[in-house]
Amino acid sequence: MPPIYLDYNASTPVAAEVFESMRPFLTVNFGNASSSHACGRQCRSAIARAREQVADLLGCAPEEIIFTSGGSEANNLAIKGFLEACPEAGNHLVTTAIEHPAVSEACRYWQRRRGYRVTFVPVDEYGRVQLPELEAALTPQTALLSVMHANNEVGTLQPLADIAALARRRNLVLHCDAAQSVGKVPVRMNELGVDMLSVAGHKLYAPLGVGALVVRRGLQLEPLIHGARQEQQRRAGTENVAGIVGLGQACAMAQRDLVQHMTRMQTLRDRLWHGLHSRIPELRRNGHPDYGLPNTLSVSFRGVPANTLLAEIGELLAVSAGAACHSAEEMVISHVLQAMQVPREYAMGTLRLSLGRYTTEEEIDRAVAVLAAGVAKLRGA
After folding, report:
1. Does the pLDDT at position 76 exceed 60?
2. What pTM was estimated for this model as a whole?
3. DSSP readout, 184-227?
């Protein structure tokens, strides 16, 4: 049997209805959307429809959407594009200690190349930023605030609406990396109050290589990619029509099924947690118990190195580790677990189990049995 796939936060399969929506634009309607002939017009129309589908899910205007190659490009366009366009905004960036590298490294790049100061605000033991600490990090020179919606490792959701209210009081632009939350929980631009929001297609059953950045009307951005006038002159390059169509259909599917999907994911996640907790001693759960993604479970097995456990169960279970062994002597713990101050004896044995649309109860029960047996063997039980 193939391994049980519990790594949906890393990437999802392309849903069947998404693939079918893309098929014509890979085979028949393969024109360039910039062309004036019928093939080009068909592609332009398909892109416009996809823009509406994404906007419907996110509660924004279609013209506020810029299609990109994925979440990392969207994050870089938000941060670098804004800072390039608005140098007068200030020379200080504020983000959190648990951001995805597409945000943290973009900030560090601006620090190295432009001399900006970057503040990485700490989080609490659950991976949640505290508003007083965030506000204390802001200065009159703060140009941009970037806070993720949901953490990719432990699933903790940040209080974005409260953070946005703080940003408005300080007249700050707020960017949100929502790659992990879109399609799993409600993500509405007006309700969150953010100015820019990044989306990654392959996290919600669209293909790899497509994403989007939502930019509030009136906000200035300098393109990362210069060329022709695609995407309102904010992202040059011939459009990935099939990918964009797939992202639009994935967003339509997410909007249609969101409530049912959330309920099912939470039920399966809780089944997984209770199964593991009942069979494995000294098991720790990471992340916020009340404010988290319904599909994500981060667990730590005390004294069992994650890389050793993965080697034991790798043929049976596809999951991600929260620590990696870089040498015989060195176990490198993820920056997220370090920021949460997870004790080392637990952090080194952390796995992320993330569920998806195609996860079954039978797979959950098998996964519990596989992990329980693997941990028992490595502990010598």
Report:
1. yes
2. 0.95
3. TB---HHHHT-SEEEEEGGGTTSPTT-EEEEE-TT-----SS-S
